[in-house]
Prior knowledge:
This protein has a single domain (about 10-165), classed as NADH Oxidase (3-Layer(aba) Sandwich), CATH 3.40.109.10. Helices cover about 40% and strands about 15% of the residues. It has helices spanning about 5-10, 25-35, 55-70, 80-85, 90, 110-125, 145-150; strands at about 45-55, 95-100, 130-135, 160-165. The mean pLDDT is about 95. The structure holds flavin mononucleotide. Flavin mononucleotide binds near residues 11, 137, 138 and 175.
Amino acid sequence: MNIDDIIRFRRSHFVKEFNGQIVPADLVHRMLENSNWAPNHKLTLPWKFRLFQGEEKDTLCSKMEQFYEQFTPAEKFNSAKFDKIKSYKSKVSHIISIGFHPSGEVSEWEELAATAMSVQNMWLTLTEHPNAVGYWTTGNGTGSDFMKVATGLSPEDKQLGFFLLGMTDNKRTSAHRNFPV
Ligand SMILES: Cc1cc2nc3c(=O)[nH]c(=O)nc-3n(C[C@H](O)[C@H](O)[C@H](O)COP(=O)(O)O)c2cc1C
């Protein structure tokens, strides 16, 4: 694959598309290794990723269920959405929690930008595999103190969501963009 295809074929695939199989460990490790090659001002390496797999992944999924039950107002509670979260345990292979540590050496937005670039590196690493997929969710308690604790972040850190990883039988490559003319 050339760089144009790698960039243009990268897609978000959602949990309903996952088949429950496990993403190969060497691919997950390459994703994490490649994440470290994102540009970052003053080389503060602000991103703080944590990989959840196996029982730890199931525990984090239980916490996502708990968060939804505990913090969703009764009038907004959606049982289909809750069922979707409950499907994570059997469908999601790994979860990479996404956070960063503001170093104080450069502006916080620069470290947020560097962390997003780091996530892009992980995401692009998935592109060449025929069945491994994922997406960045900013639901499931993103940014909350509850999820900072659940993902091992300190109170001063920022929690930016989760990269949910899985395998799919039907990997998509095409997408639509409404580019301005
Ligand atoms: C920072 C960020 C947060 C996102 N959060 C969500 C989310 O919470 N739920 C969701 O369904 N998709 C989420 N997405 C995925 C986008 O919906 C997706 O990238 C977009 O639809 C374009 O599709 P593509 O990634 O296949 O090109 C997020 C993407 C980014 C970059």
